[in-house]
Specification:
Layout lengths: L3 H4 L2 H9 L13 E5 L4 H9 L4 E6 L2 H15 L6 E5 L5 H14 L5 E4 L17 H28 L3 E6 L3 H4 L20 H6 L9 H18 L6 E7 L12 H10 L3 H10 L11 E3 L2 E2 L9 H21 L1 H15 L13
Parallel strand pairs: 1-2, 1-4, 2-3, 4-5, 5-6, 6-7
Antiparallel strand pairs: 7-8
Helix pairs in contact: 3-4, 3-11, 5-6, 6-9, 6-13, 9-12, 12-13
Organism: Apiospora rasikravindrae
Family: Belongs to the short-chain dehydrogenases/reductases (SDR) family.
InterPro entries: NAD(P)-bd_dom_sf, SDR_fam
């Protein structure tokens, strides 16, 4: 049972909202950073001020992104030719795969993959691929993109002799949604595909519709944590970040969200600084959740037996989905399997053990 004060640590969230984070000082000189979603617009400005080599925006709305580019050039004095805008629609697996292939072929190097795209539909929409939209955008497509770009990130780390980074923008909903979710039952026979826990989540059987966003964030966090256990942090550093709450199209979509924002919201600049900082291989953050500039202590829920079971199920089921979508994903997972075989048991999170 998740304790109420652990799921809703309003005191901590209030302190986070009032925190004044200093501007990051680490240079991003000559690094290539791919940003998924215009939601990370303030972080892009911070990265520009830190002399990032190349910014690549992967967005659904190109016109909106071009307006952001104009702002960065004007406000930061950043060279327009160092910013690329590419279209990707995460509600489409084909668009996601095409985007990953484009980046793999066209970019000389990829140092940071910043995953900040999300949707928060309070009504249920199903994509053309047959998945609930929140689940596909927040988890499945982002997992597909991370897997397909993993070889590029690893090659870039070898070139630079410095870790590449996958940073996933999460939220406090990872804590708050846990008490409202149904967890998978691991002792029952595995249902035939396409049934399973992810399919139940897609069909609205795991939590109520207003909590679907948080459930999908939990799914992706579980998957990210499992992935990190298979990667050498000296090559690819993986973590998630809770940057706090700021005004955005997602946060103003309902009366409850607006009230929450009024009580716990912070300026876009402070959120941008937190997100930019998460693009660094922060000490002890590999596989963990960052709370601004600090590594957050895992909640009791995320270290529970139920959470370990859920991580394994989400990892396995996501692998089944992604391998069906891409032969490249099959090969990349096979490479990860070889690394598992060569690891000591204490390096592997229980959720991905055979």
């Amino acid at each position: 049972m998740v304790k109420l004060r652990e799921a809703y640590p309003f005191g901590e969230i209030r302190r986070q909202a009032k925190a004044q984070l200093a501007q990051p000082t680490a240079s991003f000189h000559d690094k290539t950073v791919v940003i998924i979603g215009v939601m990370c617009s303030e972080a892009a400005k911070v990265l520009a001020q830190l002399d990032v080599g190349t910014l690549v925006f992967g967005v659904r709305n190109v016109a909106k992104a071009e307006m952001l580019v104009d702002e960065i050039v004007t406000e930061c004095g950043f060279a327009r030719e160092r910013i690329l805008v590419k279209q990707v629609d995460l509600v489409s697996f084909e668009s996601t795969k095409a985007f990953a292939a484009d980046l793999s072929q066209s970019l000389p190097r990829l140092d940071v993959l910043l995953v900040g795209s999300a949707t928060n539909n309070t009504k249920r929409f199903v994509t053309g691929d047959g998945w609930e939209e929140n689940l596909q955008v927040i988890h499945l497509s982002c997992a597909l993109l991370s897997i397909l770009l993993l070889p590029k990130l690893q090659d870039s780390a070898k070139q630079r002799h410095s870790p590449a980074v996958i940073s996933n923008v999460s939220s406090s909903s990872v804590r708050m949604t846990a008490p409202m979710m149904k967890f998978p039952k691991v002792n029952q026979p595995k249902p035939p595909a396409p049934a399973g826990y992810l399919r139940d989540m897609s069909d609205g059987k795991v939590t109520w519709k207003l909590a679907q966003y948080g459930a999908c964030k939990i799914a992706h966090y579980c998957w990210t944590e499992a992935l990190s256990s298979l990667l050498d942090p000296g090559q690819v550093h993986v973590h998630s970040l809770d940057p706090g709450c700021t005004r955005s199209p997602l946060s103003t979509s309902s009366l409850v969200a607006r009230a929450y924002l009024k009580a716990f919201g912070r300026s876009p600049l402070i959120c941008g600084r937190a997100i930019a900082h998460s693009c660094l291989p922060v000490e002890n953050s590999h596989g963990a959740m960052l709370w601004d500039y600090e590594v957050e202590k895992p909640t009791r829920f995320m270290t529970s037996a139920k959470a370990r079971d859920m991580r394994k199920i989400i990892w396995d089921e996501t692998r089944t989905v992604l391998e069906a979508l891409s032969p490249d994903a099959v090969q990349i997972y096979a490479d990860l399997d070889q690394k598992i075989a060569g690891m000591s048991s204490d390096r592997i999170i229980d959720c991905v053990k055979e």
